[in-house]
Each structure stands twice: as structure tokens, then as C-alpha cells.
Amino acid sequence: MSKVALIAGASGITGSNAARALIADGWKVYGLARKPDAGVPGVVPIAADLLDPGSLWHALQDVAPSHVFITTWMRQTTEAENIRVNAAMVRNLLEALSAGRHVRHVALVTGLKHYLGPFDAYAREGVLPPTPLRESRPRLDVENFYYAQEDEVYAAAARDGFGWSIHRPHTVIGKAVGNAMNLGTTLAVYASICKETGRPFRWPGSEAQWKGLSDVTDARVLAQQLVWAAKTPAARNQAFNIVNGDIFRWSWLWGWLADWFGVKAVGFDGTLHPLEAEMAGDGPLWRDIAQRHGLVEPDLTRLASPWHTDLDLGRPIEVMTDMANSRKLGFTAYQATDESFFDLFTQLRADRLIP
């Protein structure tokens, strides 16, 4: 099997971990981004803008990937704009690769908004699905940019004859600076601020999330599934949920996270305390913390995404995920969730991103 991968979004949480997994498995890996970095040794950087068909054609004319991994998106102010922009990114990339007819598999990473609804209708009454969330659930009757991205993949597959896989993680836990959805690092930064200021590490979310069952997706487990699907014929043209394989309650995990940082945990007190408001004025404070501790990223907005963490932790239902599709086909990867967080925190500290 030809093993040449092109990753759109190779510097993000998902893309960087996919790159490491593919390289370890003997693949040649190209990483496409507007400003590609050298964060993963062995990745061949390609600079191109997914919204500029001309730049894509020029950058990819001498690249012949057998497998394409789409792990990126761009947040817009409305769902209509999310659909327009993110569908165009997928369409432009696959059209730029179409003439060579060398692509045999395209993997698209989306997420649980497939079941919970888009940002402006996220997990609200009236669109709440039964849990655990199953791959067999039909699409919601709402606009959703994940659906638009999928449809672009399906159309290109019909045109060019490649197979595809769709991967739907829950909250992805892993390191990436500048990532738009980064709950693990957001909580690490919040806890670090609490440690420095003496604030309590206060639960920001809903009672349902605090008391209910939940799961998350370690970026390393998602990477394993991406490689597995690319190499497994029976995985062709299927959608897969992907989570760690365990479940937890925030009511006890929250205290474990607080203990790691040596801060006081405060649980649900009857009301929401959104992190977006809690951390709104912490930019100058973080810059001071970074200077005093010799941290490499003084810009709080490059590390924390409180708006997305609030979406996840503020849901009015518990959310856990069924992985029947890939389990039945033999995918057995497992990761303990507490270790996902602790491994991330250790890496962030070693890389001087938190004190």
C-alpha cells in the first residue's frame, strides 16, 4: 500500500498527533497550513490557503498523496458562514487533488456537534439526542457545517473514486498552541491562574455535566483510529465515533485536576460561572505570569479557548459516546482519561507553556 499522507491542519491538536502516528507507522507525511510550523519532526511543510484555490493548486501540483486527512476548520460568526467557509475549504482541497487521481482515501474529522447541533443551537432543548450517542443516529434537521463538510467529501468521492472515513471525537485532549477548541489546555491555564492568585478552581458548567456521565477523546487515540481506518478495508466509507473508552463524572475528576495543580476545587453551586467571563480580564495577568516564570507563550488567547470549554461543560445533558462501528471491526485502543489530562499537563509544563 502506498503510504503518502497529506494532513490539512497538521499543526493542530488532531493533525499533529496524526502526523506523529503516521510517521511512526512508516508513512511520508506532508503538512498543509497557511503558516506551517516544524512542530513534528519528519513532516514536510506545505504553505497554502484552503480558501485560495490558486495557492492550493500551485502548492500541491508536485504532491501525490494516497491518503488525505482533513483535521482543520475556521470559526465564523454564524452557522451559515461556518457552512460557506468550511465546506469551501474541503471542496477546494479535494478539487486541487482531483486531476492526479492518486488519492485513495480521505479522512474527515468532525465531532459530536453532528449529534448535538451547531454552535448557535448547541445541545439545546428540542435538539437533544438520546445518549450514548450512536453512529446510526440520523442528522438533525438544522444547518450544521459538519454536514456540509461531509457532503463535500461524498461528492468528491463519487467523482474521483476514493474511499472515505468520518471521525467524530468528543472533546479532544492534547497540546496545540493557537487551537480554537482546547479544553485541556484551557483548564490548565485556568488552574495555573487560580494557583497564582489564590482563586478557587471553580466548576464553570451545568449541573447535568457536573453530575452526569461523560467521556473525552485523547488526541493520541484519535490518531490511532485515523491510521487504522486508512489501513483497514472494512472501514471504507463509514463514520466512526472515537473516545477514550472509559467514562467519568466531572464531580470527581474536577477534584483530581485541582489536586494536580495544588488548588482548591469548588464544585457546582447551583449556577453557571462561565470561564469566558471568569477569564475575560486575565490577559495582562497571564502576560505577567509568563514573564515571571519564563513561559514561552504570553498571549492568553493562544492557549485558552474558554468559549468552547463553556459550550462543553455547560450542556444541559450528560454526554457519552458509543463506539460500536469501529469496535465491531476490531479497533480496540483505550486510554484512561485522568492520564490524558495529567500527560497533557506534564507536557505543557515541560514545554514551558504553564508554570
TrEMBL record:
Family matches, as SUPFAM superfamilies: NAD(P)-binding Rossmann-fold domains (SSF51735)
Xref: InterPro entries: NAD(P)-bd_dom_sf, PRISE-like_Rossmann-fold
PRISE-like Rossmann-fold domain sequence ranges: 67-355
One Pfam family cited in the UniProt record for this chain: PRISE
Protein name per Swiss-Prot or TrEMBL: SDR family oxidoreductase
